[in-house]
Amino acid sequence: MLDPRLTPARGDIAAKFLEGKVTAERFVEGETFEICEALAPLREAPSPEAMLSTQALKGERVTIYDRNGEGWAWGQLETDGYVGWLPVAALATPIVAPTHKVIALRTFAFPGPSIKLPPTQTLVMGTRLAITREDGSFAITREGWHLPRSHLAGLDSHAPDYVAVAERFVGTPYLWGGKSSLGIDCSGLVQLSLQAAGLDCPRDSDMQQTKLGRVLDAAAAKQLQRGDLIFWIGHVAIVRDAETIVHANAFHMATAIENTRQAIARIKAAGSDVVTIKRL
Fold first, then answer.
1. What's the CA gap between 82 and 138, in Å, rounded?
2. What is the pLDDT of residue 1?
3. Cα separations (Å) of 30 from 20, 176, 273?
4. What pLDDT digit, counting tens, does each position of 125-142 carry?
5. pTM for the predicted model, two decimal places
6. How confident is the model over 108-127, as a mean pLDDT?
């Protein structure tokens, strides 16, 4: 059975590549756009009140298959394949391919070569930008924005330790569907951290449980290593060392470092036991 979160198909419309695989009234090729806002919500339904499924970052590509005429577009993100509704205002026709990405948790885009100028945008880790030239300590985007060069890296640059990336998010507020240092959920933390290390990662925790790593047997699970992933139903945490984990969670309403045994006991008392532990 096809996962509706990853399958651009409805009863009335579906992606052309799904013809013969799903039933729909019509099939369309879709059109490629890029996210032009710093952070765009991808929602379950075309409404600002609909549940936030995930977020798309500036520079990310998306294939749009439908528009409702009321400011919403339905499509599929290129990075992780997630399907949902995006604000039309967050979409733009791609002009040039991005060359760099933001590696700081957050950075400011200035209208000129001075940090004393009022910032034009606040951008988050993972944002993709087309850099046209450099001016001293600034990198200049095709929009004319000036960003600190130290906050950027080439698209082929990867963090050496994805757990260290996750640790940088400690204190970030918990946000269901969030995928930035302004607000993040458990699987968003895993996805962003692995992507920063150059590793593909699906969006939701159940997808990550299925796709990532190998299952540890009981003996290995007693000897946890940095980078292991602990899964509960609807939750995932990253092992830091033999005694602690880092995870975005609703108990702390933040990304927090917590004693592993205490976290497992606390979550079990709330009604959920560990489902599996995986090693990348």
1. 34
2. 83
3. 17, 28, 42
4. 999 999 999 999 999 999
5. 0.96
6. 98
- Given CA atoms 24, 28, 33, 37 in this order, what sign does their dihedral have? negative
Phi, psi at 244, each rounded to 5°: -135, 155
Q: Which residues pair with 246 in a beta bridge?
A: 238, 257
CA distances from 184 to 76, 160, 197, 261 (A): 20, 22, 18, 23
Q: Are strands 83-87 and 14-15 parallel, antiparallel or unpaired?
A: unpaired
Q: What is the CA radius of gyration of the chain?
A: 20
The string of pLDDT tens digits covering residues 136-164 is 999 999 999 999 999 999 999 999 999 99
Say how far apart CA 2 and CA 25 lie, in whole Å.
18
Token pair belonging to 237:
């945490």
CB 234 within 8 A of CB 249: no
Distance separating alpha carbons of residues 132 and 142, to the nearest angstrom: 6
Amino acid identity for residue 220 in this structure: A
Residue 222: pLDDT over 90: no
119: DSSP letter: P
Interacting residues of 6 by C-beta distance below 8 A, sequence separation 6+ = 76, 81, 82, 83, 207
pLDDT at residue number 280:
96
Mean per-residue pLDDT, 52-56: 98
